[in-house]
Amino acid sequence: MSYSNKRTRSSTDLPSFECNFCSLTYPTSKQLHNHKRIHKTVNTPVAKENLQEPVVQSASAQTNLEDVPFDPFQSRIFKASCNFEAGDQGHIYNNNIFMTSELFSICLNNLVTDFGVSTDLHSLLVDLLNTVIRNNDKLKEEYNPKILYAGPVNTLIKSKTDLKSYEYDICENVCLLFDITKDEDKCSICKAYRYKEIDGDSSLVPVNIMMSIGDQLARLLGNDKTRAKLQCRANRQSISNEISDYFDGEEYKTLKEQQLFDSPNDIAIALFLDGFVNQEKSKQQLTIVHDFLYMGYLRLIFFFVSRCTDEYLIQLAIIPGKPKDLDSFLLPIIDEISSLGKHGLIIKKFNGEQIKAKVHMVMASGDIPQVTQFCHHTGHMSNKGCRICEVEGVSPPHGKGKYYQDRCATLRTKDDFVGGKKATGIKEANIFARLPTFSGSCFYGLDEMHLIGHGIGKLIYKLVVLSNTESLEAYWPKSEDGSHFLKDRYTFSLKESDVKLAGRQIQYSRSNIPVSFQGSWDNIIDKREGVRAIDYIDFLLYVISTLLVPLFTRQTTRKALLALVKGCSICLQWNLNENMIVEMENNFNIWHQFLDSEITEKIYQSESSLPKVFSGKNAGNLVERLAIRGYLNCSVDFDELVNPIIPTRTSLDDFLELSSLSPYNYDHQLWSPFETIPYIQEFTNIPTFTKELQTFYI
């Protein structure tokens, strides 16, 4: 007898649906369908009277299974981490318990993963935490020891170092900085009022925050270790006929003859100024002022016998915009440095010792437009377009720009900058001319990143790459009537496909570039976003000479480009001698003579001389924090005081010498980090492994 769903009617004639498995009834078919899900394990309809029979059989079968003993060595078709040993009655798992230090390690690893922290920083954090654990006994001696958050740490170091910033009133449009010795109520440029009256308060005024260079140098000189580093200028020994630092140059020797650096504590500094934006697509340009300590870097910079590093870089100010009167912002800095050079610093220590020193600025620098603004030059597009000499510019018959072909023009004198000389392109007197160390045009220097990277390297990139891949017509010669361009007569004309191929060859060679190479070595031909100055330098030194020069058919073009590359390569050397300087000048002469001949033959078209939110308060707070941090890094030896756990520093030149020689008389070596490789130590003893290697190579 088979059962099926059948509809029955009650006396009230209500619909009813009966389950053919358990005889339960439901008012709707949907409810019956949901109910049948509990019978999904039943494959065939079963008679009502036989419903209990499968249950009895299932219980009996279960009883029989329990009687079968567990065989831990039975073959299985699954994998699991459980252990099977003789005598086991089931799958045995060990309940692992994490130790406290392991839990902290996991928590730290989760934070590192969630916030995308680099592996190197993760390692440093682990070392710091291990140092804290090691120094647990010392921490117990303190009252309520704890690691402070960022805010309290900044407050702590500010109170301990006693360094502070100073406010200067500025125009609301960042035109100028008001002279604190004068009672000015209006900006002389835009006529905006100095003070704003809001709710009866007339003292509200925009301010720019600056640091005092004297405050910072006094604390550096007061520290014995830092003062010893600053004395490297006086203690260094020059090598005859070799230039390796500023102190080997003629300018410094002239200052020494004027008795400006008599004391070993005297400090030479340079001023650097550069513009930047605080957001990637921001239109508001900020200007940062640095000092660099030349013990030898506003930025103020110390001149130092060992190469300049960030710890000797002092941020003096961040100007919240591009000022129209830059000299007014520089005046407090120049005035203080002038006073420090004339009267000097006197540091009185608690033991009665007095330390005396004088400070002299020997250089001011930045990028090319910034240096032009420093010396109030009319710019490279004017008739007197060079700030170093009085060469006359010549305009091309078609297009814009200037040619400067005279190689024997008269050099500018110091008086041109001291009093200003409009006839020669110096619009007004230079503020730096107030300093006794001012030497004229040589006082304004250019670093390799701006001069060679963003200067020569970028220009050659435009001439060779962009003019051939993006049809940059600005450099192409024009026809006699000026109606159209003549690319076939362009000096640096190449096939676009050949230039693109060179870019791909750069990409293909990345795997063969040694790890000691400093640049990114990427396909600069196609990837032009975010190209840095160092990338342009690499392009000039390596790509031009190896991949692009062979593509030119004219021997004169190849020779001129190689001469330019060689001259720049010599210029970038750390150490120079007289022979190298002569060779560098000869190579640059080859390049200039080539350009002269191209211009004469009207092959080259000139476009330029060749080469040619108010955030003041926040920016000032940043300068103050940077200054305090820089002072601490210079004067406090945290490694000595804290004795942190730090990883072993190795380089590509660190090797372990193996005593035995091979049959081929080669000295076999191991890279020293080999001893610290964790997974090696898990499998074998390092000395044993080293011995086996020696045996293998004998």
From TrEMBL:
Annotated protein name in UniProt: C2H2-type zinc finger transcription factor
Keyword Metal-binding appears in the UniProt entry: yes
Keyword entries, A-Z: Metal-binding, Zinc, Zinc-finger
Biological source species: Phycomyces blakesleeanus (strain ATCC 8743b / DSM 1359 / FGSC 10004 / NBRC 33097 / NRRL 1555)
GO terms of molecular function: zinc ion binding
The C2H2-type domain, residue ranges: 17-44
Classification via InterPro entries: Znf_C2H2_type (IPR013087)
